[in-house]
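ARCHIVE CARD
Drawer: 12
Card no.: 0347
Subject: one protein chain, sequence and derived structure
Cross-reference: see card 0346
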Amino acid sequence: MPPVDLLAILLASSPDDALPRARELVEGHGGFCAAFSKDDPMNPKKMRWWRFMVRLMRMGFTGLRHVMDDTVASWTMRQRWKLVWQGRVAANVEMLQKMRPDEVVNVIAIQGWPAL
């Protein structure tokens, strides 16, 4: 396979079914992927009651506030995943701009269904 030119590209979003192939193509050309699926460990999920109890037992009194804040946030912030995604996109764009200051960073988003 001939060598490919490295490009300043970022995959920001993709439907779950297209994500593995899109990630492979972007990373194969030297880009980065900020997109993640709903099953990705980075995707915030509601804290289960048993995990809450384990964290309470392991934490001291000073850590109680942090545990409570995490629990409340996991149950009240409906679109918490969006904050994680925005942070990943921003960090990757900044990294690409520093790595390739003379190039334009191309951000790719593959539309899924339903269209918003």
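Annotation on reverse: The mean pLDDT is 78. The radius of gyration is 18 Å.
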